[in-house]
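Give me the fold.
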Amino acid sequence: MRQKQSELQDDELIAVILRAAARAEEYLAGKSLEEFLTDPQLQDALGACMLVMGQAAREVTEMLRNWTSHVPWIQLDELADWRLYGYRDERRTRQLWEFIQHWLPMIRASLQSSWSPAHLRL
């Protein structure tokens, strides 16, 4: 059983993840893999987003994880460690690129629908 370390509720944590994910996608908009690999400032900006997302993902309750079992929570958790273990490592930086390009849009859509289910929207 996970113990919550923050005072934020699951809906607030999802909002944190969604905001950081949106920023990450904005930073990469129109960028190529080569630009990403050679731009330390862009990597720093994305590293900050990944840290925020990973830390928030670590704080969500088991109940939310079970309810949204289609969300790759383990991979989201690991994002917080990217700056420690993947930073400036080209192979891991490429993996981060793939994650942001391919998985992040799906995760955002899943969390957005969980955070604001259709039956609750006006």
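Helices lie at 10-28, 33-38, 40-59, 62-67, 73-79, 82-85, 90-115.
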